Amino acid sequence: CGGLDVLSNPQNRIFSPLFLFDLLLAPYQANLFSLIFYAILGQWGAYLLLRHKNVSRGMAMVGAVLFINTSWLGMHFTEGQVSYGSFQLFPWLLLSLEKLSKPKWFLLLSFLMAFFLMEGGIYQFFFGIYMILGLFVLDSQLRNRVLGFCQTHGLFVLGCLVMFCFLAAPKILGVANGLGHRAPALENWSISLETLFYGLFHPKQDV
What we know:
single chain, mainly alpha
């Protein structure tokens, strides 16, 4: 029949703690409870991040609610892209970078990146890397904070990287084993200017 086996699918979450939802609940219930779980954690993280930025409690609550109810998240969940759920944890990623002077926050950062892979959040993992690298280049304070932490806690950083590798290894090895023998296929296709116009400007985006 073709296709991928379970372990070769980058978006499987067999190794995720939230796999318990899949074991105990029906599929649609497991997906719903997963999104609710992420929403609670994400809203809490957004609140703490805004408070760290000296935003008042009331406005931090409003900002956290607005973040967790953004149309971008709602659009993807409505389309059934439940694997995007852990995007709601990105405030914790930013908060970890903001508080990186303390080892526990680097530990949380390492666990989050490993969790994205275990959860099947391939987009989250790579977008998280892009965000970290972007902030490292553009934010001099964060860059100095990261470099200073690595210099003063070198062994701890190495230990966290080892922990990340062990946590993510089952997922990475499974995907590599299933996809490693496949040759990449180059797709060559084109669309007409009329189709492109309708896709970008038609009110119903009816392509």
